[in-house]
Amino acid sequence: MDQFTINLLFVGASFALYIGIAIWARAGSTSEFYAAGRGVHPVTNGMATAADWMSAASFISMAGLIAFTGYDNSSFLMGWTGGYVLLALLLAPYLRKFGKFTVSEFIGDRFYSPTARLVAVICLIVASVTYVIGQMTGVGVAFGRFLEVSNTTGLLIGACVVFAYAVFGGMKGVTYTQVAQYCVLITAYTIPAIFISLQLTGNPIPALGLFGEHQASGEPLLVKLDQIVRELGFNEYTAHHADTLNMTLFTLSLMIGTAGLPHVIMRFFTVPKVSDARWSAGWTLVFIALLYLTAPAVGAMARLNITELMWPNGTDGEAVSIQQIDEDPAYDWMATWQKTGLLGWEDKNGDGMIQYYNDGNAEMQAKAEANGWQGNELTNFNRDILVLANPEIANLPGWVIGLVAAGGLAAALSTAAGLLLAISSAVSHDLIKGQLRPDISEKGELMSARVAMAGAILVATYLGLNPPGFAAQTVALAFGLAAASIFPALMMGIFSKKVNNSGAVAGMLAGLIVTLLYIFLHKGWFFIPGTNTFTDADPLLGTIKSTSFGAIGAAINFTVAYIVTSMTKPIPNEIKELVESVRVPRGAGAAQDGH
Amino acid sequence: MTDQTSNTVSTAESDRSYWKANVRLIRISLVIWALVSFGFGILLRPMLSGIPVGGTDLGFWFAQQGSILVFLALIFFYAWRMNKIDKDYGVEE
Fold first, then answer.
1. A251–chain B nearest CA distance, Å
2. Cβ of A241 under 8 Å from any chain B Cβ?
């Protein structure tokens, strides 16, 4: 059986499973559609939230970004896990106590203002749509490779699949589907990592193997890796090269963004009790940590494998020859990935070999001149392909490659479905029922939810064709937006009895607009390529890149909210009582529809 | 503890001290949260560079492994402590 058939089998079987579950658990009433009737156990909820959370960014993209940058990209690891601490301590239990369905309902009630609710809905939609664009990038990469079609075709097929089960399943379908997806994706991520860790270090636990001994050389793995990347003129893997301010802000943006993303927060509305909301955040992080503790090992080991494949005779010997790439089965992955357009090489100096090195490094330029090299010849290595290509690079059996295909798709599709649900509930429940037509029938509300989903997926697919960055970078922008708009409003709503309606609205708007502006200035207006004034290599404000701006946006949000509050009418007593009741778990009961 | 049912004034007082206990616990937890990530993982890494961990230093380990493990411990610690505080103040569901 060839690899294409094996991939199809794995992907097909996993899809049949998810769609089967979605049909079996089809949502009936609106309350089931949004919050699964609140009967979900913390461990189950944790697993589903983990699948929802770990998207194409975590599964497909993140290890690749770490692999080619090293320590400096640790922000992704700390940021995307550290946010759960904020979520568990600062938001989840109180929002569960509040007992409504959506984040914007809380903001609308706490700030006693339909305008606040409307602004929150807009913030949610902007952040979620940006997030879905990142997912679509990952979907395109994964489908492109495993159906052996172009990136664009892969994206279009993926969009149809996401739409199908998100529309027909609702949250209940999604909850159990996502438990299945978690199992598929975590197996798919860890099995190749275990194989590779065994090959390189003899340690079956990748997180320990990373700090273990590289068996072939007898040196610690990270020492070996530092040495060979240094010899090719790249930054040492473990060293700190990034700007410290930007790295700190970036980590902070990802953390507070995590605690401000609607599709994650919504999960904590679905547990039976306030105490369960606390546990649920912990269980979610347990399931996430299984992948996040493995990811840095995947990145480092893949970087080592790739470099050694390019320099099979050592960095002092001859580079890999084109003949070997064409004939040796260990290099088959290069030909398959070349088809997607995401990997490329070019024999610039016509010596029949592919020299991979950092041609921006002065020392290497001198060496290149002496050896007759005319620039780095591994011309294109899209970071998003690393995890999916990893088992092929390490020469693992065909079934592992098929499994990773299924896992990558599970990650991208589950998150896309969760986000579409958040977008559709924001539009139908908060915007249409809450603002425009309060008398809409339950059936009409469900219908508008589905129309909103279809609209969101069309926009995301269109923008996903020309994404503003690698999957994880686009997703990081979505986190920045959530960090600057939603998180401060929620936190002030719970921890302050002073911040009033005008303060919250002004704060959210200021945070969202300034952050969005900063992103558009660097990534192009509405993410349309070529319309940017600045680049992240040379940002507008000092060293602060557009992906790190969320933390500044959040600070602006807090500041504006406090200033405006101090100049306007104090909050009424009944809102003070609402805040007091949200702070105490007593009498939480079941959630009600707010109308 | 105050009598929860008969006296609303003391309930309000008890709720206030319950909230204070909660905020104190949150503050301690967030100091640790920031210390292991922004501290050990980024800003204080140079100071930890003398402590070797498997081919690199402790700061690198905290940035890529340790911080995540501490985050996990923190959330479970908080959930366990808070559920206990809920009972002490009689505010559990």
1. 8
2. no
Which ranges in A440-585 belong to alpha helices (H)?
442-464, 471-495, 501-523, 550-567, 573-583
Look up residue A538 and give its DSSP letter. Answer: B
Query: Residue A438: what pLDDT?
Result: 82
CA–chain centroid gap for A220, Å, is: 31
Facing B68 at nearest CB: one of A89, A210, A289 = A289
Q: Give percent of chain A with pLDDT exceeding 70.
A: 94
Cβ of A211 and B61 within 8 Å? yes
- Comparing CB atoms, the residue among A222, A252, A255 nearest residue B55 is A222
- In this prediction the pTM is 0.91
Q: Count CB neighbours of A342 within 10 A.
A: 20
The answer to whether A418 and A52 have CB atoms below 8 angstroms apart is: yes
| Residue A220 backbone phi and psi in degrees, to 5 | -60, 145
- The strand pair at A343-344 and A380-381 is best described as antiparallel
Query: Pick from A583, A403, A394: which is nearest to A496 by CA?
Result: A583
Nearest CA in chain A to B67: A78
| pLDDT at residue A365, as a whole number | 92
From A535's Cα to the closest Cα of chain B, the distance in A is: 25
- What does the pLDDT look like over A355-373, one tens digit per residue? 999 999 999 999 999 999 9
What's at A61, amino acid-wise? S
- Calculate the CA dihedral of residues A128, A131, A137, A143 and round it to 10 degrees: -70
pLDDT tens profile A117-148: 999 999 998 999 888 888 888 888 888 887 88
Size of interface A-B (CB pairs under 8 A): 141
Cβ-nearest to A274 among B15, B41, B93: B93
* Min Cα–Cα distance to chain B from A288, Å: 10
Q: Which pLDDT tens digit goes with each residue over A548-586?
A: 999 999 999 999 999 999 999 999 999 999 999 999 998
List of long-range contacts for A309-317, beta carbons under 8 Å, 24+ apart:
A309/A393, A310/A354, A310/A356, A310/A378, A311/A228, A311/A232, A311/A356, A315/A228, A315/A231, A315/A232, A316/A231
Closest CA to B88 of A149, A208, A286, A586: A586
Interface of B with A (CB under 8 A): 12, 15, 18-19, 22-23, 26, 29-30, 33, 37-38, 41-43, 45, 53-57, 60-61, 63-65, 67-69, 71-72, 74-76, 78-79, 82-83, 86, 90-93
Give the integer Cα–Cα distance in Å for A368 and A361. Answer: 10
Which residues in chain A have their CB less than 8 angstroms from residue B82's CB? 93, 275, 278
Give DSSP secondary structure letters for A303-339: HHHHHHHH-TT-TTSPPEEHHHHHH-GGGHHHHHHHH
- Taking only the tens place, the pLDDT of each residue in A403-447 is 998 888 888 777 787 788 778 878 888 788 877 788 888 888 888
Query: Which residues in chain A have their CB less than 8 angstroms from residue B60's CB?
Result: 71, 74, 222, 238
Residues A63 and A393: beta-carbon distance below 8 Å:
no
**B interface test, pick of A53, A74, A256 with most B CB neighbours within 10 Å:** A74
Residue A73, C-beta contacts closer than 8 angstroms, at least 6 positions apart: A65, A66
DSSP-derived secondary structure letter, A535: B
Residues of chain A where predicted confidence (pLDDT) is lower than 70 = 22, 25-40, 165, 167-174, 589-595
Q: Residue B65's closest chain A neighbor by CA?
A: A293
